[in-house]
Amino acid sequence: MTARKKLTDALKRSWLALAIACVVAAGAFAATVYELRMQVARQGAATRGDLQALRGELQEIRRLLESSAGEKEDEMGPARSVRVRIAGQPSLGNPRASLVMVEFTDFQCPYCASHHTRTFEGLKKAFVDTNQMRYVSVDFPLDFHKEAFKAAEAAHCAEEKYWPMYSLLFANFRNLEPGNLLKYAEKLALNPATFKACLDSGRYAEKVRQGLAKGRSIGVEGTPTFVIGRAEGSVVRGRVIVGAQPPEVFTEIIRSHLALRR
Q: Whose CA, among 37, 46, 87, 95, lies 20 to 30 Å from 125?
């Protein structure tokens, strides 16, 4: 065999070995790529599963939040619109304000006193004193509060000092006996004889009864109960809110009303 032939045969064997090696490498590469693709697919499937699980958890959280909101709505009473006449009722703020908050109140009611302490002053400062809202008080003395009816008369007997008496009565809601009512009148520098004559005569008893009738006509059963809404002359058409709700509840509702009017 010539040297040239030996060289040719050696080259052929080398090329064949190289070809075989390339085929093996290609197969290994293909297998590796396939495995990687399978891992990605499996990882993707796991990721999709995680996303579905997370989506389920979010839906459950949303359901719980909506349920909680529903419970809060129940605490405030059913969302219903009513009309209440406010002519002649004591009021604070801009008499031409389109937004009005009406309070049906009982001076012996601890929840009404709580509303006055926790909420009333803040609402007055933010919305009444800035002429954005008018605040109206309507008597609704409950039958089982034996001092409440006369206390309501006393507030009206204070005449132009109704609101200072309103605050004083709530500050002393556990002590509303007739003798104490006279003391509160003295604290406000009211004429004692004139105040006592007014209280003894029952001058404002009918006004208190009219407040009770107004409340019953729109379904008021307890105190405090509120109506927040739009003034249409001497009538307020608005939503009923039951109970001494936290200040932020009233603030949110009031701001929503004010935003609608801009």
A: 87
